[in-house]
Write a structure and sequence with these properties.
CATH class of the largest domain: Alpha Beta
Order of helices and strands: EEEHEHHEHEHHEHEHEHEHHHHH
Number of strands: 10
CATH architecture of the largest domain: Alpha-Beta Barrel
Strand content: 15-25%
Radius of gyration: 20 Å
Structural class: alpha/beta
Helix content: 40-55%
CATH superfamily of the largest domain: Aldolase class I
Bound molecules: flavin mononucleotide
Distance between the termini: 41 Å
Shape: globular
Strand order of the largest sheet: 3-10-9-8-7-6-5-4
Largest sheet: 8 strands, parallel
Number of domains: 2
């Protein structure tokens, strides 16, 4: 167990923020399988201060998702600071996380997301504005290694962020120019962990229990954060938890369990979204869940061609009958 500020973290398994993915239904599923801390996707500070309805929707969560972090991004210290205050008062998350990792040019060009990797003074100012606006709620940061391979700044940035009052840092040790290519350089997580006294959460390329073990051993990080390895595979959290609790490791769900998760996820989406969004997200998640069994390609294709939630309902019932 470790703490982020005063928040006690019981499980060192974090579900990463993922745009278009980590909404209330998916977070609920991952939590069920053992994710210890979950995050919203990144939310625009500008959208928050304008009280844009869709932006505010992205931050809603239920009590059983706690501990939960809301991740925000922006380029203006004043706006990001104000947005953090609003988020804190309106939603009372357990953590407010600042995104310094998004590599998308539309975001970075003004200095937001991993654009801050190029301007540590701006990063300092944004972070200080957030820390000052939220009293007790711990502020954390998720960042990359640097802008490109000639400007690796994660350790220097970490030391500056700690001084400003950040309570934990997640490092995804790829550069902005790498985007998602190549391998994450875990050595930089080790370097950061040795340099700072706040918890360091290691992120990048954890796809199974072995990766978890290697990340912990090679970096000494306090917790790990999983993103792509959990797409269609919330069982990754159960597998890692099994390892932590000295139980048999890699959890391989039966086809029946896979379909049960499809059903649960779909029901949660129906409750949470309008039918068009529900249909699109069902297709997206099902294309990840429905892999690795005989007939998977055909079932994926059927769901992909569904034109309505009613069709999804029928298909799911057929699928359930076939397996039971
Ligand atoms: C679909 C998708 C959406 C993402 N959205 C966000 C986001 O909103 N905020 C963020 O900090 N990182 C985001 N990321 C990056 C991940 O959180 C993570 O840092 C990265 O994928 C590396 O971890 P992994 O190797 O476990 O996937 C996203 C990644 C993916 C694949």
């Amino acid at each position: 167990m470790f703490t982020i500020g005063k928040l006690k973290i019981k499980s060192p398994l974090f579900l990463a923020p993922m745009a278009g993915v980590t909404d209330h239904p998916y977070r609920t599923i991952c939590k069920h399988f053992g994710a210890g801390v979950v995050y919203t996707e990144f939310v625009s500070a500008n959208g928050i201060i304008r009280e844009n309805i869709r932006t505010l929707e992205m931050m809603k969560f239920s009590e059983d998702e706690r501990p939960l972090g809301i991740q925000i991004f922006g380029d203006s210290p004043d706006v990001v600071g104000k947005s953090a205050k609003m988020v804190n008062e309106m939603f009372k998350p357990d953590i407010i996380d600042i995104n310094y990792g998004c590599p998308v040019p539309k975001v970075t060009k003004s200095g937001a997301g991993s654009g801050a990797m190029k301007d540590l003074c701006l990063m300092d100012e944004i972070t200080a504005a957030v820390v000052e606006s939220v009293n007790e709620t711990p502020v954390t940061v998720k960042m990359r290694a640097g802008w490109d391979k000639d400007k690796i700044i994660s350790t220097e940035a970490g030391l500056r962020l700690e001084k400003i009052g950040v309570k934990a840092i997640t490092l995804h040790p790829r550069t902005t120019s790498q985007k998602f290519t190549g391998q994450a350089n875990w050595q930089l997580i080790k370097e950061l962990k040795q340099a700072v006294n706040i918890p360091v959460i290691g992120n990048g390329d954890i796809n199974n229990v072995d990766d978890y073990k290697k990340m912990l051993e090679s970096t000494g990080c306090d917790a790990v954060m999983v993103a792509r390895g959990a797409l269609g595979n919330p069982w990754i959290f159960r597998s890692i938890l099994n390892h932590i609790n000295n139980k048999p490791e890699e959890y391989e769900p039966s086809l029946k369990e896979r379909i049960e998760v499809c059903r649960n996820h779909y029901e949660l989406l129906k409750e949470d979204k309008n039918s068009i969004v529900c249909l699109n997200l069902t297709k997206k998640h099902f294309s990840w869940y429905l892999k690795g069994f005989k007939g998977a390609v055909e079932w994926r294709r059927k769901f992909m061609y569904a034109n309505s939630v009613e069709e999804v309902d029928e298909l799911l019932q057929l699928f359930e009958k076939e397996v039971n």
